[in-house]
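Sequence in, structure out. Go.
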Amino acid sequence: MSRSEVFIGRQPVLSSDMNLFAYELWFHQGLNPNGHSVPATEVLIDKIQNDIGFQAIVGSHPSILKLPKSLLKPESIPQFESDHRVILELETDVLNDAETLKNLKALKLKGYHFLLDDCKADTASEKLSTITEYAKIRVNRFSDSEIELRKLVERLQKQGIKVIADMVQNEDQYHHLKQFGFDYFLGYFFTNPTIVNGHKLSGNKLNLLQLMAKVNAPHSDFDELTDILSQDVGLSHKLLMAINHPANDVPVRVEKISDGLKYMGLKRLKFWVNLLMLSNMEDVPQELLTTSLLNAKFCELMALQSGHEHEKDSYFLVGLLFNLDAYFKIPMNEVAMSLPLTPELKEALTQRTGPMGQVLNILSVMQNQTQDAEILEFEGLKIDRISTNFISASAWAQEALMA
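Output:
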């Protein structure tokens, strides 16, 4: 990777009851001795605004922007709709920069909100917390001092500051941290479920998994799909509503599923049936569904751009199924064995092997915002293209859920 390259990632911020609060957009800059990283970030912001638009990436949810300090000025902030809530992340080093502090005053007057990043129990954090409405705490810093963590959360909340738990790794840690009173939780922890050995699926979930197996069977045809839909009138009604959504660009109003096949094709209908079945599951955060769509589209884009276009449907499906263990709370190998998947898809899901498995590994790195991201590569695709695919897939997932 060129050391001047920059890329963007996105992470969800969930409330204590697993509802989506906001999306954090972070801009990573490579270390550049010639100082080209900030101009490169500005170019990237312009490109996203022209090609996709930042609003498409986050929908109606607030945006938390982690920008370089030098871009914290009114003319450099990415553009959103006028009533959109934009929260800018600040690090304590802004206290030493008079020009940045001046810019922050101007941003505050324009209606921007501030978040203190990496808040600690120190003097600098305490000073900056006087102008912020949100604070983010890296919980791994307090693994050996939970009493101090609790005190810090309580102190911030007494100041009227909403507190975000950062670097939450899995569902177990989320449940533990809820006891400390955090307002929000950052990351894809909800895709790493608590697995209980010997857990048996309820009748409804077992039935759903069996239906998904029938829908995704390689040789299932329209008659079989119609038979599945006939067993659930509500599902049929939702599918017709989805087919007729303007985003699907169907030229006539479709009144029967059979007409939908004519205009959309079997593969597209199967996608919508999968989506609607997953959306009907109880005790599953809505953001998990958005993430599944992001995963599917990301994998498809990676296939199209790396010489695997003839396998794009398999890549899309493996992405859609990537987090099924989080839906059913059983190990992925058990989920995969219950579905009529090819050996390649099963190995990708359970062992992360083969080209599809490599793409799933890349997806995990992008979601977890690790430093390994800048060296990611897949069959000629480097981090700039991978990141663009991730953001494009994020926008597509937002649009698909509106259908």
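Check: The first helix runs from residue 37 to 51. The CA atoms of residues 235 and 276 lie 7 Å apart.
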